[in-house]
Amino acid sequence: MDQPQQPAAAPVSRPARSGAVEAALAVALGVLSAAFGLAPWLLTGARSPLQNLWAGEALPADMPVTLLPLSQYHATSIVALLTVGGAVAGLAVRIWRPGRRRLATGCAAAGVSAVHAIAVLQAFTTVGGGLTGGAAAALYVAGLLAGTVVAMAAAVAAALLLAAESKAPAALGVGLMAVPAASWLAFAASSAAGPGGTPAFLAAAWRWLPAVLVGAALAWCGFRPAVRLVVWVVNLLLLWLVPALFTSVSYVLGTRTYLGDFGEMSLLARQILAATLGPDGGAGPTVAVALAIGLAGAAALELRRRRVGS
Q1: d(CA 243, CA 210)
Q2: 160 shares its domain with 27
Q3: 11 preceded by a cis bond (ω within 30 of 0)
Q4: Distance CA 273, CA 244 (A)
Q5: Is 136 helix (H, G, I), strand (E, B) or coil?
Q6: 22-48, pLDDT tens digit by residue?
Q7: How far is residue 200's CA from residue 211's CA, in Å, rounded to a whole number?
Q8: What sign for the dihedral angle of Cα 89, 87, 145, 106?
Q9: pLDDT tens-digit profile of 194-230?
Q10: Residue ending a domain, choose from 165, 186, 212
Q11: Which of 128, 145, 150, 236 has the fewest Cβ atoms surrounding its Cβ within 10 A?
């Protein structure tokens, strides 16, 4: 006599992680991402750059350890070191795809901000304590702190954009981070190779890397729905504006002649910005390359989609 068939066992599903577990993992992810962003500076030994307003004579080896390279000559590097940490956290959440995405994104951003707050507090306390007193030192610290706080906010924005489910904000996050990411890689390469040790081809590659990143992001984002065309316009504008801003800030803050003279600094900044954004500034070819990559990639992906759908 045939034995009655036993009912098939139900598939065993893994229990979903609790909100507390996902939150803790996301905070840890944010902490690690922020540390990764700071790594190129920390691996140099993290000795503070020499300060023009330092209270006494000091050699580079005599300077204290700081978690950020506080100096007007490193303004753009500070932006890169902070924002890349936020971008890595956002990308990590996007790859992870947790069940409570908003919770995880917020916790990851909080972890990034906590590390940044500790680094900023340690660096400014250490450098501020070693400077000469007076209005010039106070103005110097206040200016650096204002720029650093803006960079911290940009890091949070990058994390939120890149972790978003929709392609449009994620592609916008790539556009926001393209230039800082190239600056971060250049800083990491120069720190590892030492003065004059970066190969010439790598130095040339940093100029074109933002265009490649933006172009790839636009191709991935695509044209549909039509509102995504706004992302194309904004990303191309960012690719045109941000390198000019980086160049302007680096040049103006690196010129000791006008440092502290806000009228002359403002005039110099406007002149450099106008020259960099103009037809001879070199932004045109970069934007054109990004647009070409985006159009070609989007067309190829659309053709592939139609072939698969047919």
Answers
A1: 9
A2: yes
A3: no
A4: 6
A5: helix
A6: 999 999 999 999 999 999 999 999 999
A7: 19
A8: negative
A9: 666 667 677 777 889 999 999 999 999 998 888 899 9
A10: 165
A11: 150
